[in-house]
Amino acid sequence: MPESQTIRRPPRPATPVPGAGLAACRRFRRAHALVLVLAAGPLVAQELIDVPSGQSVTLFDAITGEPGPEGLTVRFRFLAPQIARAGGTMPYELAAGDIEYLCDNYALPRLSNIGPEVSQIVITLMDRPVPFGQPDPEATQFFEAFRPEDGRCLWEGF
Question: What is the set of domains in the chain, with CATH numbers?
Fold first, then answer.
């Protein structure tokens, strides 16, 4: 975001309105979710990212949403065709290092310092595009959760 742009929050109502706090909280989260994604710059779905295992992955999407059990959760989902069950060459044991690498070296630098603090980062590798939240029994997906702390991703098992 250029330095000349400023983010302005809507003024708060002088008198509380019953139920307005929840709506304002939702608007605030949506606004900051947008800022979080925009801070990363344009997301290029075809950008190849080299990871320690040697496979190349591409960013599929970045999702911010409702706070998770530990606070605000951000998800980075990557296409990694080599993890496929049928014909894939990348077992979880090798891909696990890639997931941690992507958290430390891809996700963390793209988090915004504006707005609510991110409490959890979820990194997903999937062998094919899968809409978030929709089941696909044919898809292979590996995912792990991390807590950002002191500039590193600390693994948090589900």
Answer: 48-156 (3.10.310)
What would the pLDDT profile of 68-83 be if each residue is shown by its tens digit? 777 899 999 999 999 9
Tokens in use for 31? Answer: 């606004």
Check residue 20 and give its pLDDT: 41
Q: Which residues, in sequence order, are CB contacts of 55 under 8 Å at separation 6+?
A: 80, 82, 83, 90, 95, 98
- The DSSP code sequence of 102-149 is HIIIIIGGG--SSSSPEEEEEEEEESS---TT---TT--EEEEEEEEE
Whole-angstrom CA distances from 110 to 10, 19, 23, 105, 141 are: 25, 33, 27, 9, 23
Q: Which two tokens stand for residue 122?
A: 């979820």
* Parallel, antiparallel or unpaired: strands 48-50 and 72-79: unpaired
**CA 118 to chain centroid:** 10
Enter the pTM of the model. 0.69
